[in-house]
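Bench log, entry 3. Co-assembly request; chain sequences pasted below exactly as received.
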Amino acid sequence: MGGYIIAIDQGTTSSRALVFAPDGHVVSIARHPVTQYYPRPGWVEHDPQELFATAARALSEAFEASGLSPADIEAVGITNQRETAILWDPVSGKSVYNAIVWQCRRTADICEALEKEGLGGYVKEKTGLLIDAYFSGTKFKWMLDNVDGLYERAAGGLLLGGTVDSWLIWNLTGRHVTDHSNASRTMLFDIKNLRWDDELCYALGVPRSILPEPVQNSEIYGRIKPGIPGLEALEGIPVCGSAGDQQAALFGQCCFDAGMTKNTYGTGCFAVMNTGGEILSSSSGLVSSVGWTVRGMTTYCLEGSVFNAGSAIQWLRDELGFFESSPQINDLAGSVPDTGGVYMVPAFTGLGAPYWDMDARGLICGITRGTGRAHIARAVLESIAFQTAMLIDAMEAGMSAPMKELRVDGGASASDFLMQFQADLLNIPVIRPSMVETTAAGAAYLAGLAAGVWADCRDLLRQRDTDRVFLPSMDESRRAAALNAWKDAVRRTLTK
Ligand code: ADP
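Structure output for the full assembly:
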Protein backbone atom coordinates (compact mmCIF):
# COMPACT_ATOMS: atom_id res chain seq x y z
CA MET A 1 0.00 0.00 0.00
CA GLY A 2 2.00 3.00 1.22
CA GLY A 3 1.18 6.67 0.85
CA TYR A 4 -0.42 7.12 4.29
CA ILE A 5 0.38 10.17 6.38
CA ILE A 6 -0.05 10.88 10.07
CA ALA A 7 -0.81 14.44 11.11
CA ILE A 8 -0.21 15.54 14.68
CA ASP A 9 -2.53 18.35 15.76
CA GLN A 10 -1.20 19.78 19.02
CA GLY A 11 -3.87 22.21 20.30
CA THR A 12 -4.67 24.17 23.43
CA THR A 13 -7.12 21.63 24.81
CA SER A 14 -5.82 18.40 23.30
CA SER A 15 -3.12 16.61 21.35
CA ARG A 16 -4.54 14.61 18.47
CA ALA A 17 -3.19 12.48 15.66
CA LEU A 18 -5.01 11.55 12.46
CA VAL A 19 -4.00 9.00 9.86
CA PHE A 20 -4.79 10.16 6.31
CA ALA A 21 -5.08 7.81 3.33
CA PRO A 22 -3.52 8.76 -0.03
CA ASP A 23 -7.00 9.78 -1.25
CA GLY A 24 -7.23 12.25 1.67
CA HIS A 25 -9.81 10.51 3.83
CA VAL A 26 -9.26 10.03 7.56
CA VAL A 27 -8.52 6.43 8.53
CA SER A 28 -8.17 6.80 12.30
CA ILE A 29 -7.95 9.40 15.06
CA ALA A 30 -6.52 9.37 18.59
CA ARG A 31 -6.81 12.16 21.13
CA HIS A 32 -5.48 13.04 24.56
CA PRO A 33 -6.53 16.08 26.55
CA VAL A 34 -3.81 18.43 27.78
CA THR A 35 -3.83 20.23 31.10
CA GLN A 36 -4.01 24.00 31.25
CA TYR A 37 -2.56 25.72 34.29
CA TYR A 38 -3.77 29.12 35.50
CA PRO A 39 -1.18 30.10 38.12
CA ARG A 40 -2.52 33.67 38.36
CA PRO A 41 -5.40 35.61 36.81
CA GLY A 42 -4.65 36.08 33.12
CA TRP A 43 -1.76 33.59 33.12
CA VAL A 44 -2.00 30.37 31.12
CA GLU A 45 0.60 27.58 30.99
CA HIS A 46 1.11 24.02 29.76
CA ASP A 47 3.64 21.43 30.82
CA PRO A 48 5.84 20.97 27.71
CA GLN A 49 6.64 17.37 28.70
CA GLU A 50 2.90 16.67 28.69
CA LEU A 51 2.49 18.33 25.30
CA PHE A 52 5.06 16.01 23.76
CA ALA A 53 3.98 12.90 25.69
CA THR A 54 0.33 13.31 24.69
CA ALA A 55 1.27 14.05 21.07
CA ALA A 56 3.53 10.97 20.93
CA ARG A 57 0.85 8.80 22.54
CA ALA A 58 -1.79 10.06 20.08
CA LEU A 59 0.65 9.38 17.22
CA SER A 60 1.26 5.78 18.24
CA GLU A 61 -2.43 5.12 19.03
CA ALA A 62 -3.69 6.57 15.75
CA PHE A 63 -1.16 4.39 13.95
CA GLU A 64 -2.26 1.28 15.93
CA ALA A 65 -5.92 2.04 15.27
CA SER A 66 -5.30 2.38 11.53
CA GLY A 67 -4.35 -1.29 11.26
CA LEU A 68 -1.57 -0.28 8.85
CA SER A 69 2.01 -1.48 8.91
CA PRO A 70 4.94 0.93 9.43
CA ALA A 71 5.88 0.58 5.77
CA ASP A 72 2.52 2.12 4.80
CA ILE A 73 3.32 5.37 6.62
CA GLU A 74 5.13 7.74 4.31
CA ALA A 75 5.39 10.84 6.46
CA VAL A 76 4.44 12.71 9.61
CA GLY A 77 3.16 16.30 9.51
CA ILE A 78 2.57 18.70 12.38
CA THR A 79 0.13 21.49 13.08
CA ASN A 80 0.04 23.28 16.39
CA GLN A 81 -1.38 25.95 18.67
CA ARG A 82 0.61 28.99 17.64
CA GLU A 83 2.60 31.55 19.68
CA THR A 84 3.01 29.27 22.73
CA ALA A 85 6.63 29.64 23.89
CA ILE A 86 8.93 26.95 25.31
CA LEU A 87 12.56 27.06 26.49
CA TRP A 88 14.47 23.85 27.12
CA ASP A 89 17.83 22.36 28.02
CA PRO A 90 19.25 20.41 25.06
CA VAL A 91 21.28 18.13 27.33
CA SER A 92 18.55 16.96 29.70
CA GLY A 93 15.88 17.41 27.04
CA LYS A 94 13.62 18.98 29.67
CA SER A 95 11.94 22.37 29.55
CA VAL A 96 13.29 24.96 31.97
CA TYR A 97 9.87 26.51 32.65
CA ASN A 98 6.27 25.75 31.74
CA ALA A 99 5.13 26.63 28.23
CA ILE A 100 3.64 30.14 28.22
CA VAL A 101 0.43 29.74 26.25
CA TRP A 102 -0.72 32.12 23.48
CA GLN A 103 -3.66 33.28 25.62
CA CYS A 104 -1.39 34.33 28.51
CA ARG A 105 -1.44 38.09 29.19
CA ARG A 106 1.54 38.27 31.58
CA THR A 107 3.70 40.20 29.12
CA ALA A 108 1.19 42.99 28.49
CA ASP A 109 3.40 45.49 30.36
CA ILE A 110 6.47 44.46 28.33
CA CYS A 111 4.41 45.17 25.22
CA GLU A 112 3.32 48.53 26.55
CA ALA A 113 6.97 49.45 27.16
CA LEU A 114 7.93 48.38 23.62
CA GLU A 115 5.09 50.47 22.27
CA LYS A 116 6.26 53.47 24.31
CA GLU A 117 9.77 53.04 22.92
CA GLY A 118 8.16 53.60 19.54
CA LEU A 119 8.81 50.11 18.19
CA GLY A 120 5.29 49.62 16.77
CA GLY A 121 6.04 50.81 13.25
CA TYR A 122 9.20 48.73 12.99
CA VAL A 123 7.42 45.61 14.28
CA LYS A 124 4.65 46.05 11.76
CA GLU A 125 7.01 46.60 8.86
CA LYS A 126 9.30 43.68 9.64
CA THR A 127 6.95 41.11 11.14
CA GLY A 128 3.49 42.03 9.80
CA LEU A 129 2.21 41.99 13.40
CA LEU A 130 1.03 44.45 16.03
CA ILE A 131 2.89 44.56 19.34
CA ASP A 132 0.85 42.25 21.53
CA ALA A 133 1.35 39.83 24.41
CA TYR A 134 -0.31 37.19 22.22
CA PHE A 135 2.86 36.68 20.15
CA SER A 136 5.72 34.57 21.49
CA GLY A 137 8.64 37.05 21.48
CA THR A 138 7.79 38.72 24.77
CA LYS A 139 7.03 35.33 26.33
CA PHE A 140 10.64 34.23 25.69
CA LYS A 141 11.80 37.51 27.17
CA TRP A 142 9.68 37.00 30.27
CA MET A 143 11.19 33.56 30.93
CA LEU A 144 14.73 34.80 30.31
CA ASP A 145 14.16 37.71 32.72
CA ASN A 146 12.35 35.76 35.42
CA VAL A 147 13.96 32.33 35.60
CA ASP A 148 17.41 32.42 37.22
CA GLY A 149 20.46 31.77 35.10
CA LEU A 150 18.82 31.50 31.68
CA TYR A 151 20.89 34.22 30.00
CA GLU A 152 24.05 32.46 31.24
CA ARG A 153 22.79 29.13 29.98
CA ALA A 154 21.97 30.70 26.63
CA ALA A 155 25.47 32.20 26.42
CA GLY A 156 26.95 28.77 27.14
CA GLY A 157 24.89 27.15 24.37
CA LEU A 158 22.81 25.27 26.92
CA LEU A 159 19.40 26.69 26.12
CA LEU A 160 17.08 26.20 23.15
CA GLY A 161 13.81 27.92 22.44
CA GLY A 162 10.88 27.64 20.13
CA THR A 163 7.15 27.36 19.64
CA VAL A 164 5.27 24.06 19.89
CA ASP A 165 6.24 22.97 16.35
CA SER A 166 9.96 23.34 17.26
CA TRP A 167 9.52 21.48 20.52
CA LEU A 168 7.73 18.55 18.87
CA ILE A 169 10.14 18.33 15.92
CA TRP A 170 13.18 18.53 18.24
CA ASN A 171 11.78 15.74 20.41
CA LEU A 172 10.88 13.59 17.42
CA THR A 173 13.97 14.10 15.25
CA GLY A 174 16.64 15.95 17.26
CA ARG A 175 16.63 18.92 14.85
CA HIS A 176 16.05 22.45 16.11
CA VAL A 177 13.92 24.12 13.44
CA THR A 178 10.69 26.12 13.09
CA ASP A 179 8.55 26.49 10.02
CA HIS A 180 8.01 29.93 8.48
CA SER A 181 4.35 30.14 9.49
CA ASN A 182 5.12 29.59 13.17
CA ALA A 183 8.23 31.78 13.05
CA SER A 184 6.12 34.62 11.71
CA ARG A 185 4.03 34.65 14.92
CA THR A 186 6.97 35.39 17.24
CA MET A 187 7.36 39.14 16.59
CA LEU A 188 11.06 38.38 15.95
CA PHE A 189 10.86 37.19 12.35
CA ASP A 190 11.45 39.26 9.24
CA ILE A 191 8.67 37.87 7.06
CA LYS A 192 9.98 39.42 3.87
CA ASN A 193 13.50 38.01 4.07
CA LEU A 194 12.48 34.91 6.08
CA ARG A 195 15.07 35.33 8.81
CA TRP A 196 15.26 36.34 12.46
CA ASP A 197 15.53 40.09 12.81
CA ASP A 198 18.61 41.05 14.84
CA GLU A 199 17.15 44.40 15.93
CA LEU A 200 14.01 42.80 17.32
CA CYS A 201 15.99 40.02 19.03
CA TYR A 202 18.09 42.78 20.60
CA ALA A 203 15.09 44.93 21.58
CA LEU A 204 13.42 41.96 23.26
CA GLY A 205 16.62 40.60 24.77
CA VAL A 206 16.21 37.23 23.08
CA PRO A 207 19.61 35.76 22.19
CA ARG A 208 19.69 34.77 18.55
CA SER A 209 21.48 31.54 19.55
CA ILE A 210 18.44 30.03 21.27
CA LEU A 211 16.18 30.44 18.25
CA PRO A 212 15.54 27.54 15.86
CA GLU A 213 16.55 27.50 12.22
CA PRO A 214 13.62 28.73 10.08
CA VAL A 215 12.62 26.15 7.47
CA GLN A 216 9.98 25.72 4.78
CA ASN A 217 6.58 24.28 5.63
CA SER A 218 7.10 21.30 3.42
CA GLU A 219 10.54 19.69 3.49
CA ILE A 220 12.23 16.86 5.36
CA TYR A 221 13.19 18.16 8.82
CA GLY A 222 14.46 14.81 10.05
CA ARG A 223 13.32 11.28 10.83
CA ILE A 224 11.72 9.85 13.96
CA LYS A 225 14.64 8.99 16.25
CA PRO A 226 15.19 5.59 17.79
CA GLY A 227 14.37 5.15 21.45
CA ILE A 228 11.23 7.29 21.83
CA PRO A 229 8.97 5.22 24.08
CA GLY A 230 5.90 4.05 22.18
CA LEU A 231 7.17 5.21 18.79
CA GLU A 232 9.53 2.30 18.08
CA ALA A 233 7.39 1.11 15.16
CA LEU A 234 7.54 4.54 13.50
CA GLU A 235 11.31 5.00 13.79
CA GLY A 236 12.90 6.41 10.64
CA ILE A 237 9.70 7.92 9.20
CA PRO A 238 10.34 11.45 7.93
CA VAL A 239 8.78 14.45 9.66
CA CYS A 240 8.33 16.72 6.67
CA GLY A 241 5.42 19.15 7.02
CA SER A 242 4.57 21.76 9.63
CA ALA A 243 2.34 24.80 9.93
CA GLY A 244 0.59 26.78 12.66
CA ASP A 245 -3.08 25.82 13.03
CA GLN A 246 -4.66 28.74 11.15
CA GLN A 247 -2.28 28.53 8.22
CA ALA A 248 -2.67 24.74 8.15
CA ALA A 249 -6.46 25.18 7.96
CA LEU A 250 -6.07 27.61 5.03
CA PHE A 251 -3.89 25.02 3.26
CA GLY A 252 -6.24 22.19 4.24
CA GLN A 253 -9.11 24.17 2.69
CA CYS A 254 -7.05 24.26 -0.52
CA CYS A 255 -7.03 28.08 -0.53
CA PHE A 256 -3.93 28.04 -2.73
CA ASP A 257 -4.57 31.24 -4.71
CA ALA A 258 -4.50 34.90 -3.73
CA GLY A 259 -7.89 36.13 -2.53
CA MET A 260 -9.06 32.73 -1.32
CA THR A 261 -10.27 32.89 2.27
CA LYS A 262 -11.36 30.56 5.03
CA ASN A 263 -13.23 31.31 8.21
CA THR A 264 -13.24 28.96 11.18
CA TYR A 265 -16.37 29.22 13.37
CA GLY A 266 -15.32 28.05 16.82
CA THR A 267 -15.48 29.69 20.22
CA GLY A 268 -14.20 32.72 18.30
CA CYS A 269 -13.83 33.07 14.54
CA PHE A 270 -10.51 33.03 12.70
CA ALA A 271 -10.56 34.41 9.18
CA VAL A 272 -7.45 34.02 7.04
CA MET A 273 -7.03 35.23 3.48
CA ASN A 274 -4.33 34.12 1.08
CA THR A 275 -2.62 37.28 -0.27
CA GLY A 276 -0.23 35.46 -2.60
CA GLY A 277 3.33 36.77 -2.74
CA GLU A 278 2.21 40.12 -1.37
CA ILE A 279 2.39 41.28 2.24
CA LEU A 280 -0.71 43.42 2.79
CA SER A 281 -0.58 46.15 5.36
CA SER A 282 -3.85 46.82 7.14
CA SER A 283 -4.99 49.79 9.12
CA SER A 284 -7.89 47.91 10.70
CA GLY A 285 -5.90 45.77 13.09
CA LEU A 286 -5.47 42.79 10.79
CA VAL A 287 -2.06 41.11 10.80
CA SER A 288 0.05 39.62 8.03
CA SER A 289 1.97 36.38 8.37
CA VAL A 290 3.66 33.80 6.24
CA GLY A 291 1.00 31.34 5.12
CA TRP A 292 3.52 28.78 3.96
CA THR A 293 6.69 28.30 1.99
CA VAL A 294 6.44 25.32 -0.32
CA ARG A 295 9.11 24.44 -2.88
CA GLY A 296 10.82 27.79 -2.42
CA MET A 297 7.65 29.85 -2.98
CA THR A 298 6.32 31.89 -0.08
CA THR A 299 2.62 32.65 0.23
CA TYR A 300 1.48 35.31 2.69
CA CYS A 301 -1.82 35.68 4.45
CA LEU A 302 -3.87 38.32 6.20
CA GLU A 303 -5.61 37.35 9.37
CA GLY A 304 -8.28 38.68 11.67
CA SER A 305 -10.41 37.29 14.43
CA VAL A 306 -13.78 37.70 16.05
CA PHE A 307 -13.29 37.25 19.80
CA ASN A 308 -16.76 35.91 20.57
CA ALA A 309 -18.72 33.74 18.17
CA GLY A 310 -19.62 30.22 19.36
CA SER A 311 -19.07 31.54 22.87
CA ALA A 312 -22.28 33.57 22.44
CA ILE A 313 -24.17 30.34 21.71
CA GLN A 314 -22.57 28.81 24.80
CA TRP A 315 -23.67 31.85 26.79
CA LEU A 316 -27.31 31.31 25.78
CA ARG A 317 -26.92 27.66 26.69
CA ASP A 318 -24.99 27.91 29.97
CA GLU A 319 -25.88 31.29 31.46
CA LEU A 320 -29.40 31.82 30.16
CA GLY A 321 -30.43 28.15 29.89
CA PHE A 322 -32.07 28.64 26.46
CA PHE A 323 -31.28 25.07 25.37
CA GLU A 324 -29.21 22.10 26.48
CA SER A 325 -26.90 21.59 23.55
CA SER A 326 -25.54 24.08 21.02
CA PRO A 327 -27.07 22.52 17.87
CA GLN A 328 -30.55 23.13 19.36
CA ILE A 329 -30.10 26.84 18.73
CA ASN A 330 -30.88 26.21 15.08
CA ASP A 331 -34.42 24.90 15.65
CA LEU A 332 -35.14 27.67 18.11
CA ALA A 333 -33.85 30.36 15.74
CA GLY A 334 -35.69 28.76 12.83
CA SER A 335 -39.03 28.87 14.69
CA VAL A 336 -39.41 32.59 13.91
CA PRO A 337 -39.17 34.20 10.46
CA ASP A 338 -36.82 36.98 11.63
CA THR A 339 -35.44 38.57 14.80
CA GLY A 340 -38.27 41.10 14.92
CA GLY A 341 -35.71 43.91 14.88
CA VAL A 342 -33.58 42.48 17.70
CA TYR A 343 -29.79 42.75 17.44
CA MET A 344 -27.27 41.18 19.78
CA VAL A 345 -23.64 42.30 19.92
CA PRO A 346 -21.61 39.68 21.84
CA ALA A 347 -18.80 42.04 22.84
CA PHE A 348 -18.16 40.03 26.04
CA THR A 349 -14.44 40.79 25.94
CA GLY A 350 -14.39 43.84 23.70
CA LEU A 351 -14.44 43.98 19.91
CA GLY A 352 -11.58 43.08 17.57
CA ALA A 353 -11.02 44.09 13.93
CA PRO A 354 -12.19 46.37 12.49
CA TYR A 355 -13.37 48.11 15.71
CA TRP A 356 -10.56 47.47 18.21
CA ASP A 357 -12.32 48.49 21.36
CA MET A 358 -11.31 46.26 24.26
CA ASP A 359 -13.67 48.10 26.65
CA ALA A 360 -16.79 47.63 24.54
CA ARG A 361 -19.34 45.33 26.19
CA GLY A 362 -22.25 43.37 24.77
CA LEU A 363 -25.85 44.41 24.28
CA ILE A 364 -29.21 43.21 23.05
CA CYS A 365 -31.28 45.97 21.47
CA GLY A 366 -34.54 46.42 19.64
CA ILE A 367 -36.54 44.47 22.22
CA THR A 368 -40.34 44.83 22.18
CA ARG A 369 -43.08 43.23 24.27
CA GLY A 370 -43.27 40.56 21.56
CA THR A 371 -39.61 39.57 21.72
CA GLY A 372 -39.12 35.95 22.72
CA ARG A 373 -36.27 33.53 23.20
CA ALA A 374 -36.37 32.49 19.57
CA HIS A 375 -35.77 36.06 18.40
CA ILE A 376 -32.80 36.41 20.71
CA ALA A 377 -31.38 33.03 19.66
CA ARG A 378 -31.71 34.06 16.03
CA ALA A 379 -30.03 37.41 16.76
CA VAL A 380 -27.12 35.56 18.40
CA LEU A 381 -26.57 33.37 15.35
CA GLU A 382 -26.86 36.40 13.10
CA SER A 383 -24.32 38.28 15.23
CA ILE A 384 -21.67 35.70 14.31
CA ALA A 385 -22.30 36.31 10.62
CA PHE A 386 -22.42 40.11 11.05
CA GLN A 387 -19.07 40.17 12.85
CA THR A 388 -17.52 37.94 10.19
CA ALA A 389 -18.94 40.13 7.42
CA MET A 390 -17.30 43.23 8.93
CA LEU A 391 -14.00 41.39 9.28
CA ILE A 392 -14.08 40.12 5.70
CA ASP A 393 -14.96 43.60 4.53
CA ALA A 394 -11.83 44.97 6.22
CA MET A 395 -9.74 42.18 4.69
CA GLU A 396 -11.04 42.83 1.22
CA ALA A 397 -10.18 46.51 1.47
CA GLY A 398 -6.56 45.97 0.49
CA MET A 399 -7.22 43.43 -2.27
CA SER A 400 -7.42 44.42 -5.90
CA ALA A 401 -10.17 41.92 -6.71
CA PRO A 402 -13.30 41.21 -4.65
CA MET A 403 -13.57 37.94 -2.81
CA LYS A 404 -15.33 35.21 -4.80
CA GLU A 405 -16.33 32.79 -2.08
CA LEU A 406 -15.75 31.94 1.58
CA ARG A 407 -14.67 28.49 2.72
CA VAL A 408 -15.78 27.54 6.20
CA ASP A 409 -15.01 25.08 8.97
CA GLY A 410 -15.18 24.80 12.79
CA GLY A 411 -17.97 23.63 15.11
CA ALA A 412 -20.55 26.33 14.36
CA SER A 413 -20.15 25.97 10.58
CA ALA A 414 -22.50 22.99 11.08
CA SER A 415 -25.35 25.51 11.39
CA ASP A 416 -27.10 25.73 8.01
CA PHE A 417 -28.95 28.82 9.16
CA LEU A 418 -25.74 30.62 10.06
CA MET A 419 -24.01 29.64 6.82
CA GLN A 420 -26.97 30.78 4.70
CA PHE A 421 -27.16 34.11 6.53
CA GLN A 422 -23.39 34.49 6.07
CA ALA A 423 -23.71 33.96 2.32
CA ASP A 424 -26.58 36.48 2.24
CA LEU A 425 -24.59 39.15 4.10
CA LEU A 426 -21.40 38.69 2.10
CA ASN A 427 -23.26 38.19 -1.16
CA ILE A 428 -20.88 35.42 -2.17
CA PRO A 429 -21.16 31.62 -1.94
CA VAL A 430 -20.18 30.03 1.35
CA ILE A 431 -18.62 26.62 0.88
CA ARG A 432 -18.57 23.95 3.56
CA PRO A 433 -16.29 21.00 2.78
CA SER A 434 -17.16 17.44 3.75
CA MET A 435 -13.70 17.05 5.27
CA VAL A 436 -14.11 18.95 8.52
CA GLU A 437 -10.58 18.19 9.76
CA THR A 438 -9.10 20.99 7.69
CA THR A 439 -6.28 21.86 10.12
CA ALA A 440 -4.92 18.31 10.32
CA ALA A 441 -5.48 17.92 6.58
CA GLY A 442 -3.28 20.96 5.95
CA ALA A 443 -0.42 19.39 7.93
CA ALA A 444 -0.91 16.07 6.13
CA TYR A 445 -0.94 17.78 2.71
CA LEU A 446 2.28 19.69 3.47
CA ALA A 447 4.00 16.50 4.62
CA GLY A 448 2.61 14.49 1.70
CA LEU A 449 3.91 17.03 -0.82
CA ALA A 450 7.42 16.73 0.64
CA ALA A 451 7.22 12.93 0.74
CA GLY A 452 5.99 12.73 -2.85
CA VAL A 453 2.58 11.21 -1.98
CA TRP A 454 1.04 14.07 -3.97
CA ALA A 455 2.83 15.64 -6.90
CA ASP A 456 1.52 19.18 -6.47
CA CYS A 457 -1.37 21.32 -5.25
CA ARG A 458 -3.49 20.34 -8.27
CA ASP A 459 -3.33 16.79 -6.98
CA LEU A 460 -4.68 18.01 -3.65
CA LEU A 461 -7.58 19.84 -5.26
CA ARG A 462 -8.81 16.48 -6.50
CA GLN A 463 -9.20 15.39 -2.87
CA ARG A 464 -11.53 18.20 -2.05
CA ASP A 465 -15.18 17.31 -1.51
CA THR A 466 -17.89 19.82 -0.86
CA ASP A 467 -20.60 19.09 1.66
CA ARG A 468 -22.76 22.07 0.78
CA VAL A 469 -22.61 25.38 -1.03
CA PHE A 470 -24.77 28.19 0.39
CA LEU A 471 -25.69 30.66 -2.33
CA PRO A 472 -26.63 34.25 -1.47
CA SER A 473 -30.33 34.94 -1.82
CA MET A 474 -30.94 38.25 -0.03
CA ASP A 475 -31.81 41.30 -2.08
CA GLU A 476 -29.52 44.28 -1.98
CA SER A 477 -31.83 46.63 -0.10
CA ARG A 478 -32.48 44.13 2.69
CA ARG A 479 -28.76 43.41 2.99
CA ALA A 480 -27.90 47.09 3.21
CA ALA A 481 -30.63 47.67 5.81
CA ALA A 482 -29.45 44.71 7.90
CA LEU A 483 -25.83 45.84 7.82
CA ASN A 484 -26.80 49.39 8.75
CA ALA A 485 -28.87 48.20 11.68
CA TRP A 486 -25.96 46.04 12.84
CA LYS A 487 -23.51 48.94 12.60
CA ASP A 488 -25.93 51.05 14.62
CA ALA A 489 -26.10 48.36 17.33
CA VAL A 490 -22.29 48.14 17.41
CA ARG A 491 -21.98 51.91 17.74
CA ARG A 492 -23.94 51.73 20.98
CA THR A 493 -21.36 49.34 22.47
CA LEU A 494 -18.27 51.35 21.59
CA THR A 495 -16.47 53.35 24.25
CA LYS A 496 -14.38 55.54 21.99
P1 ADP B 1 -13.16 25.48 19.51
O1 ADP B 1 -12.16 24.77 18.64
O2 ADP B 1 -13.01 26.95 19.55
O3 ADP B 1 -13.35 24.86 20.87
P2 ADP B 1 -15.20 24.21 17.84
O4 ADP B 1 -14.72 24.35 16.45
O5 ADP B 1 -15.21 22.87 18.49
O6 ADP B 1 -14.57 25.31 18.80
O7 ADP B 1 -16.70 24.78 17.83
C1 ADP B 1 -17.45 24.82 19.00
C2 ADP B 1 -18.49 25.93 18.91
O8 ADP B 1 -19.44 25.61 17.89
C3 ADP B 1 -19.24 26.05 20.20
O9 ADP B 1 -19.27 27.41 20.57
C4 ADP B 1 -20.64 25.57 19.89
O10 ADP B 1 -21.58 26.36 20.57
C5 ADP B 1 -20.76 25.74 18.39
N1 ADP B 1 -21.57 24.69 17.72
C6 ADP B 1 -21.33 23.39 17.66
N2 ADP B 1 -22.27 22.74 16.93
C7 ADP B 1 -23.12 23.69 16.49
C8 ADP B 1 -24.30 23.69 15.66
N3 ADP B 1 -24.79 22.57 15.12
N4 ADP B 1 -24.89 24.87 15.42
C9 ADP B 1 -24.41 26.02 15.94
N5 ADP B 1 -23.30 26.08 16.71
C10 ADP B 1 -22.67 24.95 16.99
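The longest strand covers residues 297-306. Residues 137 and 186 are 5 Å apart (CA to CA).
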